[in-house]
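Section 5.1 Outputs to date
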Amino acid sequence: MGVGLGYGHWGWVLFNSLSWLLVSFFLLRPRLLREQLVWLLLALFLIDEFVELYGTPLTLSVFSRSLAEYPRSDQLAHRAGDLWRILFGEGGQPPTFDFYHIGGGIMIFSALAVLALAWQTLKLARLNNMPATLGPYAVVRHPQYLALIVIMAGFIVQGPTIPTLLLFPLISYLYLRFARIEEREATAKFGDAYVKYAARTPRFIPANKRRPRL
């Protein structure tokens, strides 16, 4: 590809893909077969995101007819053909920072921080043979899965692709299933302690806890 084009940067594809795969594997530590299989789906999600961001615009080629409004020299400029801009009719070269990329970036890195904190909390709880109830686990029962869903949603906000739009609901559904399975396992292992924790802590959506009136 020529100079100034936003695609064909396979070094960036490799670097970003490996970085995110290593970080996600380290923070999730999939042990069971079901966890490993879903992590592979997550890996496909991440790899496709970076392939289509820096490598080749596979999804944009499907919508090539909608690119007619763009100047021909800009069709392959980096982010000149963001799918949101095509669907919403926002022609022309986009700015360096906009709502899609700033909003998506905030979602991704905020959720990544929560994921790292949740991993540390869960690791400490396992060492003490106790259910994880502190830190992000005091807000929701499954902060790791919630963080992963928010990270995927952040990438989609930044720029959706056909594979990521298909994988996102599937992976999210599987993590919701995992949450229910793990709750049954935790109840069997920790008994009443986990039952009381689950009764006061929402599964995924943080509750608006009001302070008691004095």
